Request: fold
Amino acid sequence: MSDSPESNPSQQAAESQHADTTGLPPTPPPITMAQHKANVVAIRGNMAADAEKKRKRQALELQREFILSQRTSSPHRRTALENALADIEEKLAELGWTIHL
Reply:
């Protein structure tokens, strides 16, 4: 009979009990280099998407500020500005933007 952990259930129980009393989570299984590279690519992809979303939001916010700064007495121009503002705010809402007062 060997003393390997697979064949000794009392030793396995003692080890698992010791792991529980330390308060530390169990060690996750190791990952392969391919899994690591896939994780890095996914994270960088998320960062790139977040950066693109931020650029779009900033551009729309600048357009919104420009429209709000316009002064006109022409009812046609005012209607066009109101429509453009509504369109920009709709696009901003799709990006998760809220009005900052």
Notes: The chain has a mean pLDDT of 81.
